[in-house]
Amino acid sequence: MSSFSSFAITVAAIICSGEATKKIKMLVFKLALPENYKINILIIRTSSIGDIIFSLPIIPAIKKTYPDSKITWIIEEDYKQLIKNEICIDAVIFFPKKKLKSLIKKFALLQITRTIFSLRKELQITKYDMVLDLQGLFRTSLLVFLSNSKNKISLGSEFIGKFFFNKIVSRNKSERISSEYYEFAKVLGLDVQQFNPRFTLDPSIKVTSLLPPNIKMNNYFVIFPFTTKDHKHWSSEYWEELINKIDKNTGLKCVVLGNSLNKYQEQLSLRLSHRSVYSLVDKTNLQEAAAVISKAKFCIGVDTGLTHMSVSLSKPTIAIFLSTCPYLDPIEKNIRIIWSIMGNKSKNQDARYKGPHTPVKEVTVETVLKELDMLTKHPG
């Protein structure tokens, strides 16, 4: 095996794997730029649904501050739908994480080397005035290393990051939704007015083609019961009881969204299918899921990407946060957050915080129904 091939497979393995910080007070953008100079910015946030949605407000913040800027975003192909219709993004580079992981398993050294060389070549085409790593992982640090720029800033970073960046900005989380990206944008001197999670719908998608004839627009609600972490799940018995009571009280049809379920989630999906729930599990891409959400009466979900998508679309939403609590202040007034004090491990959230949320010892069906009643009677 050649020394370069060994290096290539090592780099690929690190890229596909899962603070020495100095908070900067000045933006490196603030250079003596020529008049009408179009600044090139590379943004790295390869995954996942929620964090990409949370971080997207940085795009208009950059454009409002630097109208002539050209923004390139690096993302995994699985999440390309999230930025498909984002008109403020000028170019997209796809990070072939799945391909690299598959090649590593096969120990296909030549193909790994070619893939990394191809990625490096694409990242070297443009000389970027600024690279912003919004993920701060080992693998994204190496993507920064492969890029063509002298000014590299990371939002937080694993230890190795100090070797790749000019500056590392510490993560500053608060109760506010998108708080760490909001604070990062402020440190960079960007225009943070209306810094809210965003998602741009595809107007060509017809929701009627995704739903059966008996489900009419705005006559259904959507649930998001599935998430990647088991400890974020709400009891399947609770979901069944909740759906039955909403059906009895309102007559609204229930639609469930999700994809790539594990065994536990498949069991829950099967149980729900016996409760007159119309399942769109594994039947929509992210843009189609967003379209279904946009026409719903309201949405209910756990801490998962689709719940955050619903929030970003400003739909009436109840978010059930159990062992995690990513935010308490969703900005929008038609969002209600129920979170478990007993089960929650987030140190940055405070039960004394005054906002549109309800801290409880246990999230029960009655708790959700009470919040739903308040949400539908007083949506804003």
Descriptive notes:
This protein has helices at residues 3-15, 49-55, 58-65, 97-106, 109-124, 138-146, 179-187, 236-250, 263-273, 286-294, 305-312, 365-377; strands at residues 40-44, 70-76, 91-95, 130-133, 152-155, 167-169, 220-224, 253-256, 277-279, 299-302, 317-321, 335-340, 357-360. With 380 residues, the chain is of the alpha/beta class. Strands 9-8-7-10-11-12-13 form a seven-stranded parallel beta sheet, with helices on both faces. Helix 2 runs parallel beside helix 11. The model is unreliable at 19-29 (pLDDT under 50).
In total, how many beta strands? 13
Cα radius of gyration in angstroms: 22 Å
Mean pLDDT over all positions? 88
Largest sheet: 7 strands, parallel
Strand proportion: 15-25%
CATH topology of the largest domain: Rossmann fold
Number of helices: 12
Label the CATH architecture of the largest domain: 3-Layer(aba) Sandwich
Broad structural category = alpha/beta
CATH-assigned homologous superfamily of the largest domain:
Glycogen Phosphorylase B
What's the order of the H and E elements?
Answer: HEHHEEHHEHEEHEHEHEHEHEEEH
Distance between the termini: 64 Å
Identify low-pLDDT runs: 19-29
In the CATH scheme, the class of the largest domain would be Alpha Beta
Question: What keyword list fits this structure?
Answer:
single chain; 380 residues; Rossmann fold; seven-stranded parallel beta sheet; six-stranded parallel beta sheet; 12 helices
Give the topology.
Layout: H1 3-15, E1 40-44, H2 49-55, H3 58-65, E2 70-76, E3 91-95, H4 97-106, H5 109-124, E4 130-133, H6 138-146, E5 152-155, E6 167-169, H7 179-187, E7 220-224, H8 236-250, E8 253-256, H9 263-273, E9 277-279, H10 286-294, E10 299-302, H11 305-312, E11 317-321, E12 335-340, E13 357-360, H12 365-377
Parallel strand pairs: 1-2, 1-4, 2-3, 4-5, 5-6, 7-8, 7-10, 8-9, 10-11, 11-12, 12-13
